[in-house]
Predict the structure.
Amino acid sequence: MKHFEVIKTDAASRARICRLETAHGAVHTPVFMPVATQGTVKAVSQADLKAIGTECILTNTYHLYLRPGLAVLEKFGGLHNFMAHQGPILTDSGGYQVYSLSKLRKITDNGVHFTSHIDGSPHFFTPERVIDYQARIGSDIRTCLDVCVENPAEHAAARDALTKTKAWAERSKRHFAAAARREGAKRPLLFGIIQGATFPDLRREAALHMAEKVDPDGFAVGGLSVGETKKQMHEMLSVVTEALPKDRPVYFMGLGSPEDIWEAVELGADMFDCVLPTRNARNGQALTSRGRFYVKNAPYKMDETPLDPDCDCYTCKNYSRAYLSHLFKARELLMNQLISIHNLRFLMNQTLIMREAIKNGDFQARKKEFQRLYFSGGGNFKKN
Amino acid sequence: MKHFEVIKTDAASRARICRLETAHGAVHTPVFMPVATQGTVKAVSQADLKAIGTECILTNTYHLYLRPGLAVLEKFGGLHNFMAHQGPILTDSGGYQVYSLSKLRKITDNGVHFTSHIDGSPHFFTPERVIDYQARIGSDIRTCLDVCVENPAEHAAARDALTKTKAWAERSKRHFAAAARREGAKRPLLFGIIQGATFPDLRREAALHMAEKVDPDGFAVGGLSVGETKKQMHEMLSVVTEALPKDRPVYFMGLGSPEDIWEAVELGADMFDCVLPTRNARNGQALTSRGRFYVKNAPYKMDETPLDPDCDCYTCKNYSRAYLSHLFKARELLMNQLISIHNLRFLMNQTLIMREAIKNGDFQARKKEFQRLYFSGGGNFKKN
């Protein structure tokens, strides 16, 4: 397919480097996409995102639909202008938010009734409407409305949700194809979401159905990293990437810890998003090459070294652990910004290391090197 | 005096442009100094401060002494390194914070006993200790410990506070002179604080005493902008600037609204600081050439124009009122950063306009022009 190119695949695993073309520029994979839930990556400006090297960000149809509302975004000619983001934007369809945030969710064959988590007002999403909403948002990569189930799920419940998710994906594709033709040269991309909980048979069925009956521009793997074991997560991802054609990107939804991303890339996933780097930052937790740590911990009060001596981000080039520890204790807003910048750049650097490793044919060695240092708890970092 | 040069004084008023030299670079006046109470300008990074054009910032001896503590700053070789600020830093002596933040304040001839607003622990400041603390902070411009009184104050109470403030200023200067000699070529500057509440006789006495008996490197005017009328404020400032020699800078403590700064510059003040631009930003209030307004107000929900169409700041060049309104309603942290940047740049631009006006000999005309637009409530801005 024209919009996607596999540049190189690792000889010993499914890890690969690829290039995805969108209407707002290229996405080089493996890639971590910062999350802009409400049309902003929390506490991080566009200038900082650019300095971090961010290409694609993720945002949520559910949230933007409720606030500021699609009429506002349309007035601006789309979310890109509204939030001043010039690169690609991927929108989640809202299936997960309806499941996790709404107090009331009633699913019919036609769509899902839910109430707003903001004011309790009633709303109704259908696969077609959600495609239309994403067109009004103007995102570059759009996703099909899906049905999420709790973890752990019974096989029957997961099967029922998958049956709806499959039907909705087909409807989404039909509606998208008609609308996308109208958008002409700036044609957006559609990703289908593969569900199936922790059941290999359902995951395989979902992947094959998506590839054969829906035929989207990319595959999103949903419903993982929601509390299942790592073993289950890896098994499900492996079943899916084995079943899928290799000519399209695989997006692992909601994965954000560096150790998990290394594993998932090895198993064939290309794209990732998660609130982890920015949410942990607001709790004073930094991701570093030597593991995670909390800046509030006592040893850092006098520590003149940067968060991560190996990092090239704005925060590490200008500020010390002691300063960030002080900001945490003094409840200063600047901490959110500085650690968010670091955590996002840290994940960006991890994906750059992965790309280089795949290119050089030493992915396994670099992964082991990452793990050795990350789990060492070495230096004067305290294990948390 | 070598460290200070009056470049030009307005023919029709006391407004003037000057240059103050410090160990960390020059300060061009009129100047507004962003406040970094706890060693950070709230929600604004050093990169953003630099882009705003900030030369000098203000921080508080009282706050830094309590947290992170002077031992931490000394480990870093001073506050500049700790907070990554390369320009000049002015420290307030703590007299005002002891008055306004501590639940317990007991003043003796020797100094002031108070309890920490953080943990209630007891502390004792003397004029000499506060000079030493500021040396450990490493600030470029230091101030004498003073005694603040409530507003309105009785003449007897204001007289008593002034008597102590005068004696403490003399002690501060003696102690500072001895210590400053040790700092050699990087000699810091000492500013004396002029008190006297709203009594012209006390203000005049305080100014003459400061100039003749203390002879500091600059004059700070304290105890104003604390609830007195504008008329009183202007009268007190005028009494002070009339009594003072013209060869040193005049720093009006705690003034931050643009309309007040225009008046105070006309009356001979050169330097200003206030939490207003950053505090108001966190409440969603923007300072603009057309007046103040709250971004949450309904008309801005769909407004594509920047906060201030005349502004050249990062926020105004990239984001709309509608976006900032959305951030406010969605309680997004990025709002604090973006409006703080704008408000600080707005005040910076006001001082640049003032300098240009004084240079061109049309200060009165430019002041009237500012007032006409600022108080017009025009455009689609709502009066608040």
The first helix of chain A runs from residue 46 to 52.
